[in-house]
């Protein structure tokens, strides 16, 4: 498999998943502004959406959208417990978390990365995200991870978002469960390995 990624982008989530799953893969770096690969090839020919992540399968098929990719990875390494069994009640809970992270956190972060958006507009999106973080903090009470005691692909995704919050100097000190959670996930050897391979150890 080939993971098309950009350092520190949302592609960090499937990168963590691949390492936690113990699956073989190649990393292919993408310049998101130029839409090119390191060798100069046109990334849009691989993924017309022009975004990361994209996962190239041995069949030649390309799969996009992080929440889909991480489930595909988890289902190829079921013994690792990265996702509950398909069609189980717990699997739908995982889907709930993946959808919440992608729609309520990920999409609200997007405008804050914009170089042209006014500061007051960015403050609006930051307030929205902080409200979502407070909800997650409440849900993490008494839990090691989002689904309980077991690390899942949803945790790799949330951790990726939390590295963005750190980069943007969000003050999460009033959310002790979330702060402890981020430290716990960051300490996982495979998470450290993903951060190292992407040159992001300071973000961890």
From TrEMBL:
NCBIfam families named among the record's database cross-references: PRK10542.1
Span of domain GST N-terminal: 1-81
Protein name: Glutathione transferase GstA
Highest taxon above the source species: Bacteria
CDD domains: GST_C_Beta, GST_N_Beta
Phylogenetic placement of the source organism: Bacteria, Pseudomonadati, Pseudomonadota, Alphaproteobacteria, Hyphomicrobiales
Keywords: Transferase
Cited PROSITE patterns: GST_CTER (PS50405), GST_NTER (PS50404)
Keyword Transferase: yes
PANTHER family: GLUTATHIONE S-TRANSFERASE GSTA (PTHR44051:SF8), GLUTATHIONE S-TRANSFERASE-RELATED (PTHR44051)
EC number: 2.5.1.18
GO molecular function: glutathione transferase activity
Residue ranges occupied by any GST C-terminal domain in the UniProt entry: 87-204
EC class name: transferase
